[in-house]
Amino acid sequence: MTDPLHIAFLHQDFPFSGAEQVTLSVANELSRNGLEVTILTPHHHEEAYPAGSQRLFRVVTLPEGNVKKSRQVADALCRIIRQESIGVLITYRQITYATPLKQQTGVKIVYELHNTPYYECLDIADKRRESFWANIFYGCGIERLLLSAYRAKYRRIYAWCDAFGLLCESYRQMLLHEVLGHPAEDKTWVLPNPIEPPERVEDEKEKLIVYVGRLSHRDKRVDRLLRIWQLAQEQLPQWRLEIIGNGKAAPKLKQQAVQLGLKNIHFAGYTNQVQRFYDRASILCLTSSFEGWPMCVAEAQANGVVPVLFNSFAGATDLVGNADEGVLVTPYDEQLFAQRLVHLATNESLLHHMQQAVRAKSLTYNAGRSAQAWMEMFSQWQKSR
After folding, report:
1. Buried-exposed string 319-349: b where 16+ CB fall within 10 A, e elsewhere
2. At 149, phi and psi to the nearest 5?
3. DSSP string spanning 332-373?
4. C or N: which end of the chain has fewer Cβ atoms within 10 Å?
5. Angle at CA 31, nearest 5°, toward 29 and 34?
């Protein structure tokens, strides 16, 4: 009888942020499927685990350092992989020591892209829209140079990884054809994000709208949501907006809320008990410039919370496939977003109908579906030995 495959996930901090929450769920499910699973991280935050979450994996603490390039981290990884007979290392970081690590240990490396391919281009497009001077700057050949550099980055990653994981089929096609230009060898795999279904779903919801996620300007653009709330708040006097999360943009966002004269808004900060907000909320808003496959939307749907979001990334139509599963708004029409939000919040029968429909949609995100994709990849590798 052969020993179970030993796999390891590499993270800078664990279990902070969306990517780490995905790993938490995937690691547990792969453990249930008979694999030995280890989390490797310099910073293990015991307090950050969601309340009541399972841990069927082991956590090994690495030396202090940047996991992308630290020599100390690289040396420790090499030692641990050998000692623990780790066969597969999974990372979403662009590790600079990938090739020597593979040569010294024989480990296979899976690179997971937790965003849309070429998200950097979407960031540039957003900057050009927002600023006259940025439009001039990027229009003077800078954008073309950056796009070339981004394409080279993806090709470097594709060269050293043994598998390149993407969140959905549309992203896989985008990477192969638009970014890599039909590579000779197809190493891509669709590795969908799972969610843990809630133990129960509260049917009695409050007039509460939530944003759940990191407060960063570059991608999340919560500043748009604040302007949207300014447009909607007078028509929704009984409703409240809760901003759940923290990040570098938090001080500016709080200042913006004061400047806009926003009412019935609260910045709740970071919490590892986000379930208590999902229990009460009726609507979730997401105003990002780009996303990968936002867990907050799937989690909201599982809890009967209707998502309203900009159709600003390819995965949006996977999450909201029809008008019952959420509200997609043309990017980045804040006036239209406010109108659609008000229409949903003030139409009780529509809101109730959609709350039932989004719960049904969330059943397609089960952890077993995600684990099956991972197990198929590992199975193919073991057959090729």
Report:
1. bbeeeebbbbbebbebeebbbbbbebbeeee
2. -65, -40
3. T-HHHHHHHHHHHHT-HHHHHHHHHHHHHHHGGG-HHHHHHH
4. N
5. 115
Those residues with Cβ within 8 angstroms of residue 248's Cβ, 6 or more apart along the chain or in another chain: 215, 216, 217
Residue 50 is predicted with a pLDDT of 80
Same domain, residue pair 162 and 280: no
Q: How far apart, in whole angstroms, are the C-alpha atoms of residue 85 and residue 107?
A: 9
CATH number of the structural domain spanning residue 100:
3.40.50.2000
In degrees and rounded to multiples of 5, residue 378 shows phi and psi of -65, -40
Residues 220 and 104 in one domain: no
What's the confidence (pLDDT) of residue 137? Answer: 55
Q: Which residues of the chain have pLDDT under 50?
A: 1
**Domain, as residue range, for 60:** 6-192+366-383
175-198: buried (b, 16+ CB within 10 Å) or exposed (e) per residue?
bbeebbeebeeebbbebbbbbbbb
How far CA 220 is from CA of 47, 123, 137, in Å, comes to: 25, 11, 23
Q: Do residues 135 and 278 share a domain? A: no
CA distances from 295 to 20, 137, 291, 363 (A): 11, 34, 10, 14
Residue 198, in any domain of the structure: no
Tally the domains of the chain.
2
pTM of model > 0.85: no
pLDDT at res. 1: 45
pLDDT of residue 124: 62
Q: Is the same domain home to 320 and 378?
A: no
Query: Are the CB atoms for 81 and 75 separated by under 8 Å?
Result: no
Neighbours of 204 (CB within 10 A): 6
